[in-house]
Design a protein that fits this description.
Layout (H helix, E strand, L loop, with lengths): L1 H28 L5 H26 L6 H13 L1 H10 L10 H10 L1 H12 L2 H22 L9
Helix pairs in contact: 1-2, 1-3, 1-4, 2-7, 3-7, 4-5, 4-6, 5-6
Length: 156
Amino acid sequence: MKSVRIMLVYLVVGACAFWVPDIAVHAVARNQFSGLDAIGLTVCLPVFAYVVLLVIWKKRGSAESFGFAALPAVVGTWLFGPLMMTFTASFGGGGVYQPGWSQTVILCTGLFPLCDIDMSTYDGTLFALFIVTAGLPITALFVKRRTAPTPLPASK
């Protein structure tokens, strides 16, 4: 039961670490969101997600692998994507200001892989989403290899 709760924490933390900076950029840029903003998000969102997840994982001080933290974070990023991108669209006049937005979010959350790809294209976060999706598991493999204990040499 404790491991399920910890995985849910990583799921929510991973989603927030990725999407909250995106919401902040869209809140500041509003209707002036440009290609330069999208390039900045492509670089900053994965870096911020990695740093937050590594800090949380290190602070826990547990022996579980980083993959135990990385995989739920990737799932959370994709699962909460439609909801978070609906909030970002609100700063441009769409999102929660559109009739039926809650039904759309529920439908898109049910179809989250397809809807995330479509919505993140318009949001400017498509490449950042792909970088996090591929990068976090690769980072988990690297961290697991680096933190594995070194075997002792054979004695004679």
